[in-house]
Design goal:
Helix content is 40%, strand content 22%. A hairpin with a 2-residue loop joins strand 10 and strand 11. The radius of gyration is 19 Å and the shape is globular.
Length: 332
């Protein structure tokens, strides 16, 4: 099983200096390593060429974000399994073997995520992926080990191998045949939540997404866009709505769309009360972009098979903000 680890980079020389050594040290015997550069203007490429000659470099012509960046780069990568990993991730010894063994033993598994812990506090799960991702009826994402902004401590509660709904783009393994069969990432997302759409479409055609808790990586998170960045708020709200239009089954569609408009409005009011009106403006811009792209995504919707039973919990918003349930095990 030929494996390629592909790190997307944009002006990230400092991150490469910090995190590329662990990937090379703990992966080179089992995988080819690539850096896909999104038209960086720093000296990232020169650094790699000088200090890590074993790492292959793919130079994208433009900075097309996460989605287009990987779609462009993976055209040049020959492998059975792609590992898409952020430049701010530290891997651990023997991190690849547990994941590759699952691929070898289960042909129906198309996508895998390892356990993702917080690089800044290695006792806790990290926001982007944690112990594997899920979505609720309204399309809001959450994780085992992370519900909204509440992060659980890692007490080996998620050291299992289990099916999940979505795998984090911070570290995502996917069979190359499936990636190209579903035509990769949707480039209209640019960045954020495109991996949820990718996993959703993968399950729509009958394959499974899994979490392998016997493999661990550490993610800085927010190295490209901080959680407090209004542009990140914009992308997350807009792309979550696009996921709903594109993928939610017909029986739930109108109810979920209208409910989301109301719930997002409440989120905007919450930001105003918290004296963060710039994020309210980001939500408004997200909705304007959503309306602009609505019919375009309806056309995409028409050609997709729909997974019917995507919601594990009725409303994560209700359970977290009203009932105060912050841990995955307490969700009903």
């Amino acid at each position: 099983m030929k494996t390629a680890i592909v790190i997307l980079n944009w002006n990230g020389k400092q991150l490469l200096e910090q995190f590329l050594p662990s990937i090379v040290n703990f992966s080179l015997q089992q995988a080819d390593i690539y850096v896909a550069d999104n038209a960086s203007t720093d000296n990232s490429i020169a650094y790699i060429q000088k200090d890590f000659p074993s790492v292959k470099i793919i130079e994208n012509a433009t900075n097309g974000g996460y989605a287009k960046g990987y779609n462009d780069a993976l055209q040049a990568v020959n492998a059975d399994v792609y590992c898409l990993i952020n430049s701010d991730v530290e891997v651990t010894e023997n991190w690849l073997s547990p994941i590759l063994n699952v691929f070898k033993n289960d042909e129906n598994t198309a996508i895998i995520q390892p356990k993702i812990l917080d690089y800044k506090d290695k006792t806790k799960f990290e926001y982007a992926g944690a112990g594997g991702g899920f979505i609720d009826l309204y399309g809001y994402p959450y994780c085992r080990g992370r519900v909204f902004n509440h992060l659980e401590k890692d007490t080996s509660q998620f050291d299992d191998i289990s099916e999940i709904f979505w795998a984090s783009g911070a570290c995502l393994f996917i069979r190359s045949t499936i990636y190209h069969k579903i035509k990769g990432f949707d480039e209209d997302y640019f960045a954020h939540q495109e991996e949820i759409d990718l996993c959703w479409r993968t399950q729509n055609i009958g394959y499974s997404v899994k979490y392998v808790g016997t493999s661990t990586v550490y993610h800085v998170g927010g190295a490209t866009l901080q959680e407090t960045n209004p542009h990140k708020t914009y992308l997350n709200f807009r792309n979550s709505l696009l996921n709903v239009v594109k993928n939610v089954p017909k029986k739930w569609f109108l109810f979920v769309v209208f409910s989301r408009l109301i719930l997002d409005g409440i989120a905007g009011l919450k930001f105003i009360i918290e004296l963060r009106p710039v994020h309210t403006w980001s939500i408004l811009k997200a909705h304007l972009s959503f309306y602009k792209n609505f019919y375009k995504f309806l056309k995409k919707r028409k050609i997709l098979i729909k997974k019917q039973d995507y919601n594990l919990h009725t409303s994560i918003v209700w359970q977290y903000f009203v009932l105060g349930r912050t841990k995955f095990k307490d969700l009903k």
